Amino acid sequence: MDRSEKKVIRLQRANILETYEDSIKPRVLSNFTTDSLLIKELKKVVDELRDLRKEHPDLDYCLIGPKTALASVYARHRNPREAVQILHEVYNFLKMTQFSQIVTDVAFQISIRYSEFENIKESKKWFDIALKEFAEPIRGKFTEEETIWKIEAIQLAEKLSPTMMSVAKIMGYW
Questions:
Q1: Cβ atoms of 115 and 171 closer than 8 Å
Q2: Can you give the pTM of this predicted structure?
Q3: If pLDDT is split at 50, 70 and 90, which confidence band does 1 have?
Q4: 129 contacts 107 by C-beta, under 8 angstroms
Q5: What is the spatial distance between Cα 122 and Cα 66, in angstroms, rounded to a whole number?
Q6: For tag attachment on the chain, is the N or C end more exposed, with fewer CB atoms within 10 Å?
């Protein structure tokens, strides 16, 4: 897809991503930066990248990083509702692409964001989604009849993703 685009479009995208990687992303990764200017800059990056590929939004993989970063900054800025909205967009995009590990991480982040505004029902629902997203590529799809799917998924996740499961245990998901 990139090669079929005009050179000026490819250069614009490269410049936007270079600015993001060099000057914005380091500030996102800094745990001390939560200012509204950073949110404004991230929104601008997302909008500019989206505009460059508006005819093919289903192929816009380069939005994953900036959108996830924007959700992270919103969460640190004590705005989990905005964060969860953006994470839902990223999750839906990733589901089309079959990036299973990233899908799991985003589903788990959605779960955490829901817990921040005390929507426990949605939080636990998204934890279950994250567990299934994590376990199913390894062991195959769980069927509706399987009543102990969660136990098997937790056992897999404890072995292969102990950090996620530590956070989940602290949050009381299981």
A1: yes
A2: 0.85
A3: low
A4: yes
A5: 25
A6: N
